[in-house]
Amino acid sequence: AFSFNGRIKAGTYFAYWAVALGLAVAGWLVAYGSVNASDSAGAVGGIFALVVYAGSFWVELAAIVRRFRDAALSLWWLLLILVPFGGLALFIMALVSTSKPARPRS
Questions:
Q1: How many Å apart are CA 9 and CA 29, to the nearest integer?
Q2: Structure pTM?
Q3: Average pLDDT over residues 53-71
């Protein structure tokens, strides 16, 4: 789940995406709940949310790299993350692209 090696199919990619989304929502809920807490609880909640966000980003990035590799798409497309709505474009590309046979290594 955390490795950038290998390939995954579209259904597996969607499952990873759903887990990453769930982690991000959980992190947001913790961060939102800690806003009204005392100073120390707010700091702990904020750090926890940051760790959860970083974990969900890592899972999503590893999954999309493996999905793009499976669909024989260039990893340069991942630069779309830097543009507004680029992540949505990547998500759609990852889901609608068909898997390609693995190229033999020489």
A1: 30
A2: 0.73
A3: 85
Q: Two tokens at 69? A: 């590799």
Residue 80's contacts (CB-CB under 8 Å, 6 or more residues apart) are 86, 87, 89, 90
DSSP symbol at 3 = -
Residue 46 CA: distances (Å) to CA of 24, 30, 53, 57, 98: 13, 8, 10, 16, 40
For residues 53 and 27, the answer to whether their CB atoms sit within 8 Å is yes
Place 105 in a pLDDT band, splitting at 50, 70 and 90. Answer: low
Nearest of 33, 24, 100, 26 to residue 60 by alpha carbon = 24
Closest among 14, 11, 16 to 1, alpha carbons compared: 16
